[in-house]
Amino acid sequence: MNLFFSDSLPDKDRRRHLNLSNTIFNRMKTFKLEGTLRDNIGKKATRTLRKQEIIPCNLYGNGENINFQVNFNDVRKLIYTPEIFGVEITIDGKLHKAILKELQFHPVSDKLLHIDFYRVDEKKPIVIAVPVRLAGHAEGVKAGGKLIQRLRYLKVSGLYANIPETLQVDVTNLQLGKTIKVKDLKFDNVELVSAAEDVVAAIKATRAAAAAAAAAAAAQNV
Fold first, then answer.
1. Contact 43, 100 (CB under 8 A)
2. How far apart are CA 160 and CA 146, in angstroms?
3. Residue 130 and residue 22 share a domain
4. End-to-end CA, the chain
5. Degrees (nearest 5) of the Cα angle 64, 166, 14?
6. Which residues pair with 192 in a beta bridge?
7. pLDDT digits (tens, 9 = 90+) for 151-200
8. Whole-model pTM over 0.85
9. Can you list the alpha helix ranges (DSSP code H) found in 80-206?
């Protein structure tokens, strides 16, 4: 009895063998944020803001660049979380839809220094990293293997309204020694743009599982 399967199968056979069922349950949540325009963007003014727990920010995209500021406490739940959000930023009364693009932290204190937001056009696709969640009790785990999640996020391209909160990957049929790669996955309304050969999840054979497989193979050859 061979408990190990080759990763050299053609893509269509890999997908059929894995019988992947990947579902998007919820769309990306919305985070509402209030900001005010920054008139002085010099270093001295920026240092003064940070001492007051105010974070300088930049909103760019679609031909417009806006320098503004927010209170640190207002962005804490946006920054320190594994979740992703669409951000509705109201700056001096004007609403902008955006996504978080880049964070800058102090190299020593790890204190938040700056935030870049990217303004979205709801009619054009955006690229964003979405959290991956594994679901199901893998066959390889039942056989004594260990489930390893190699990627915590996958980059997707899609319209703002179609970006999911998470990407759920069903590992139920994943066997010992088997992997799920980016190329094995497909989700409605978004396109995966992470490298096709990157491994998302794998079942690693433990010593006990390997010994059991060897014993079963030896018994079969008797």
1. no
2. 36
3. yes
4. 12
5. 115
6. 156
7. 999 999 999 999 999 999 999 999 999 999 999 999 999 999 999 999 99
8. no
9. 139-142
